[in-house]
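fyi for ur records
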Amino acid sequence: MTNATSSAITMLFVALPTMFFVIGVFILSTKALHAAFPAPIEADGEEDED
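which gave:
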């Protein structure tokens, strides 16, 4: 195999799953933060005016 093909296969089996793992960590941490610090519920019709 050429060096480029070898690098591409390495990226496929190492970098791609790592990327999805990092995305999953961010999703789980976001859900945990939303559970710990829920946003206040706004009534309909209320808008912030600057």
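The chain has a mean pLDDT of 88. thats all i got for now
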